Amino acid sequence: MKDGLIVSKIRNGTVIDHIPAGRALAILKILGIKGVEGHRIALVMNVESSKIGRKDIVKIEERKIEEREAELITLIAPEATINIVSDYEVVEKRTQKIPEVVRGILKCTNPSCITNNDPEAVTKFRTRGRKPITLVCEYCETKLTEEEVLRQILQ
Ligand code: CTP
Ligand code: ZN
């Protein structure tokens, strides 16, 4: 189904496409968008996609996505495409890879990990698996599952 049947094209802004179905709200959370900022936003959820079964799409007018935000997005939507739209045209299409190392965003679930005890310590996880996402704490080897990553981001 073409999402155009549900919401119209945007003039200027960002379209995040190919989000796994049901995760659009988590994307808004990552972007810190609560709806009161005044951007015109369209959420398309659970539409058919030829690439990933069912997908969500988030369209935000007059908003750019920072590198760090894009990195976070890959953790819950590894196949997402970030489309930059200018004057109705897609002028840039970014696909991001899950980073090798994720710093300072997620918490280690091991209470005795140094990152939970030294206030100066910054968390650092290595990507061990991409489908589903599995991250491993650099300090204590504790694994973070995709479910846990999603839970922390939605918190
Ligand atoms: N889009 C939009 N407003 C525009 C242009 C594009 O909302 N002015 C949306 C489209 O509806 C689509 C996404 O941005 O969801 C990407 O657009 P486009 O690259 O034209 O679509 P596809 O070629 O189907 O993208 P892909 O190959 O990434 O699936
Ligand atoms: Zn740890």
TrEMBL record:
Which GO molecular function entries does the Swiss-Prot or TrEMBL record give? metal ion binding; transferase activity
Q: How does it assemble?
A: Contains catalytic and regulatory chains.
Record-stated family? Belongs to the PyrI family.
**Cofactor note as given:** Binds 1 zinc ion per subunit.
Q: Report the GO terms under cellular component.
A: aspartate carbamoyltransferase complex
State the PANTHER family in the record: ASPARTATE CARBAMOYLTRANSFERASE REGULATORY CHAIN
Task: Identify the residues that bind Zn(2+).
Answer: C108, C113, C137, C140
Return one Gene Ontology term, BP aspect.
Answer: 'de novo' pyrimidine nucleobase biosynthetic process
What is its cofactor? Zn(2+)
Q: Where is the Aspartate carbamoyltransferase regulatory subunit C-terminal domain?
A: 102-149
**Domain Aspartate carbamoyltransferase regulatory subunit N-terminal stretches:** 6-95
Q: What is this protein called?
A: Aspartate carbamoyltransferase regulatory chain
What does this protein's UniProt record list under function?
Answer: Involved in allosteric regulation of aspartate carbamoyltransferase.
Q: Which UniProt keywords apply?
A: Metal-binding, Pyrimidine biosynthesis, Transferase, Zinc
